[in-house]
Write the structure tokens for this entry.
Amino acid sequence: MRHVFSVRIGPVGFRIGSDWRAPIAHLESLYAGYPAPQGGVPDFNVRLFAARPWRRFVRPAVMIGGDFVLPEAAPLPLAQGLLAAEMAMNLQMALGQRHYLLLHASVVERDGRALLMTGISGAGKSTLAALLGARGWRLMGDEFALVDPETGAIHAFPRLVSLKNDAIGVVEAGVPDGRFGPLLAGTPKGDIRHLVPDSAALAAMDRPAIPALILFPRFGFEPAERDVLPSEVFVRLTQASTNYVALGERGFEALTRIVKTVPARAIDYPDTESAIAQVEALWAAL
Amino acid sequence: MGGAVKDGWLLARALRTPGNTLALDSEGWTALIAMARAEQMIGTLAWRLEGLKVPGAVARILADARASADQGRIAALWEAEAARRALAPTGVKLVLLKGTAFVAAGLRAGEGRSIGDLDILVPRDRLDAVEVALLYAGWEWVKPDPYDDAYYRQWMHELPPLIHRDRDRMIDVHHTILPITARITPDAAGLLAAAVEVAPGLFALSPNDMLVHAAAHLFADGDLAGGMRNLWDVHCLVEQFGTSGLEDRAAHHGLSREVARALRLAAALYGDGATLNLADRLYLRRLTARDGWGRATRPATRLGFYVRSHWLRMPPAMLARHLWTKWRKAPKS
């Protein structure tokens, strides 16, 4: 491919090839502090390409390809090439990761122990992870928690934090010295802006953490908390995993271990300040 | 073997002589792994390279691929067992085809092999009973399109694909190994009669019929998609069972030319080589059309084989009508 960028995010190496320079230039700048894939051999390949040769120039549209693809992925305009790259990298993980059990969750760490936050899109897991990351926690990732079936530990996957719509302003205000990517307006998911994880998150990204608390946050309600029974945790985490079925018994063992050993709470919150106070209180009470 | 090889031969050579991969640099490994994934042979490669002192990152990727293939094997055998239970009341014996048959019989061709759908072969006059039994056991139609459905039933060698509503797995019910419209008519009853029990209640084609089926699928039906994997099957079957009686069996099914070609190409890719004619070289050009990003290359060659596959599948007037109908029904962008 014409333009290539390789990067390692936590334990996972990627090679991204592109027909255009622009998406690669964005990746080079935003992932500047990241290492290269281990031994120069990436786990996954991502391709950003033009559907027809002339579409490199005329109304350029970025098709998403790679080792693993969905049959009917729609192309994105070149101005959203960075988003295409991020989506394609997530897709490789979601469809191709077979070493770790993947949970669609954000993760922050303190004292070697991990807090997992999972929920539907819009629950605020990326926002909360970004804000906690600026307040004494280590950001481990905003998209996937990587559960090691051998040890039960969580491995970091600190890719760029993907902020959508109203969350962009909230995090810009809450992380004033943060490094942000370009504002991608009018994407299929609305406005998107990426936050670069801070140097502490990158320096510690090879250090796993023991899961200590699972939260199911919900934004837009009066403050409330409830315990979540193991049965409900199990079902919700199977739904939050993209490779639970593919891992077979290993996935079942890894998941039941979490469900049996890690406490879980559901929290409702009206604004991020309230959420952070709730999280700190729950963490202190562990 | 450096990073210079830029097509599917890189994968073929790694499978043929695993030790040679130790000379690969990181770029070579990256290309090899991408190609193996694209050809759905990463599990096979992982099995073949087991025990070699490969670089750490490669060892990790291959270990995951082996674990993944193991899980795929378990799921495929469970699917076969589910079909056996579903068909038990009909008294139709369950004859497995392709990947599931290889793993059920514990064959070398099944080691690390990726397995997608469950393919089975049943007598044509029992198709209705089989269909009812599968629908009753939770399989459902995938293709809601009436033209496709009617086309399958009238002209194909299999029922329209069914998918299980709970397990989300597909089953292809064949009554022979080539479309009815193809010019060659293999002896389907003979295939069933010679099938051997490989596990309690699970049958597979005889080794020679497995080879005939692989050759028929490659050269008398498809556009050679997945051909590197199919020829690896052929290579492993020949290595394990030899070719005694194969010529007669191939002639019996009307597939002598196809079987001979399969043996030559498998030997060229994975064995000790063979004397190739001009057409063989064209086939190899198509089979190895893959680059170090896992991309399909040589579009003109690919298109040629795609057109050929339709030409083989049906007579010209029928082909024209079929393509016209499909074109009119295709979503326009």
Notes: Residues 9-329 of chain B form a domain with the Beta Polymerase; domain 2 fold (CATH 3.30.460.40). Chain B touches chain A at residues 25-27, 29-30, 33-34, 37-38, 55-58, 60-61, 64-65, 67-68, 71, 74-75, 293-295 (CB under 8 Å). The mean pLDDT of chain B is 91.
